[in-house]
């Protein structure tokens, strides 16, 4: 392990969530040092998130600090309800922090951005858009032309074996296919950071292995 400091202390549970880094060193290969100036550095310090719900507030996350360097692959592990999704949602810019700081490449996170791709815990494709239009969505928000969007989306769909389904709607796909589209949609805008929230939890073991390979090959 290098000097990455991860401290995960999701104190709303009796059991603490723990975090560890999966990196090349874990398989006996030294981790590749990111190029100077590489982007995608996440720094979370003393994060607190409190949800207001009627009379009783829920402290979902308290005192979480972690640092992820460019090129690192880090997993946050902990029991259900300990705050994993909440931490990711704050980094993604969907959930505001109640305390502490969250920075990506030195910039405080206060809203979602194309520098951070997100693959959600639940299927989250737009049901009214075809597979290709789902993938093109982020590119459209970046102002990329229709013909270029189509080319990029078709290339990525081809890489994941989904090109034949480009004109299908999400409800015509299997669970694994929807997850693949979700991953492609997150990757296609070339984010600096990819935030993935148990995207394979609902899949059978065999499909999960295939999906993990697709993700690690593409990222
Ligand atoms: N929008 C919300 N409003 C109120 N409470 C919330 C909200 N989102 C999450 N919580 C609460 O915050 C805590 C952490 O939830 P979170 O979804 O981050 O857990 P998790 O670790 O991702 O769990 P799981 O493994 O089941 O996905 C839980 O107690 C949950 O009820
Ligand atoms: Mg979760």
Outline of the structure:
The protein has 219 residues and is of the alpha+beta class. The chain has 5 helices and 9 strands. Residues 1-33 have low confidence and may be disordered.
What does this protein structure show overall?
The radius of gyration is 18 Å and the shape is globular. The protein has helices spanning 84-92, 131-141, 146-159, 175-187, 205-218; strands at 6-7, 18-22, 42-53, 56-68, 73-77, 99-104, 107-108, 116-119, 193-196. It has 2 domains: 1-112, no CATH class; 114-219, Rossmann fold. Helix 2 crosses helix 3 (146-159). A hairpin with a 2-residue loop joins strand 6 (99-104) and strand 7. The longest helix is centred in the last third of the chain and has 14 residues, at 146-159. Mean pLDDT is 81; it is low at 1-33. It has 219 residues and is of the alpha+beta class. It has a 5-stranded antiparallel sheet with strand order 1-4-3-6-7. The protein has a two-stranded antiparallel sheet with strand order 2-5. It has a two-stranded parallel ribbon with strand order 8-9. The protein has 5 helices and 9 strands. It binds adenosine-5'-triphosphate and magnesium ion. Adenosine-5'-triphosphate binds next to strand 3, strand 4 and helix 1. Magnesium ion is lined by residues 84-85, 121, 197.
């Amino acid at each position: 392990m290098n000097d990455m400091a991860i401290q995960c202390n999701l104190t709303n549970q009796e059991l603490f969530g723990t975090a560890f880094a999966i990196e090349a060193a874990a398989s006996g290969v030294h981790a590749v040092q990111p190029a100077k100036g590489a982007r995608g550095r996440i720094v979370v310090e003393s994060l607190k998130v409190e949800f207001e719900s009627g009379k009783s507030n829920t402290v979902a996350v308290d005192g979480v600090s972690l640092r992820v360097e460019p090129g690192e692959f880090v997993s946050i592990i902990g029991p259900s309800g300990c705050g994993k999704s909440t931490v990711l949602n704050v980094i993604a810019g969907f959930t505001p922090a109640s305390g502490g700081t969250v920075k990506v490449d030195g910039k405080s996170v206060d809203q979602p951005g194309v520098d951070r791709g997100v693959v959600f815990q639940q299927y989250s494709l737009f049901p009214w858009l075809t597979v290709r239009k789902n993938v093109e969505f982020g590119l459209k928000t970046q102002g990329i032309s229709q013909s270029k969007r189509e080319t990029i989306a078709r290339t990525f769909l081809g890489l994941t074996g989904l090109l034949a389904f480009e004109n299908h709607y999400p409800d015509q796909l299997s669970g694994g296919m929807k997850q693949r589209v979700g991953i492609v949609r997150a990757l296609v805008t070339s984010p600096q950071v990819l935030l993935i929230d148990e995207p394979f939890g609902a899949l059978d073991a065999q499909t999960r292995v295939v999906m993990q390979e697709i993700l690690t090959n593409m990222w």
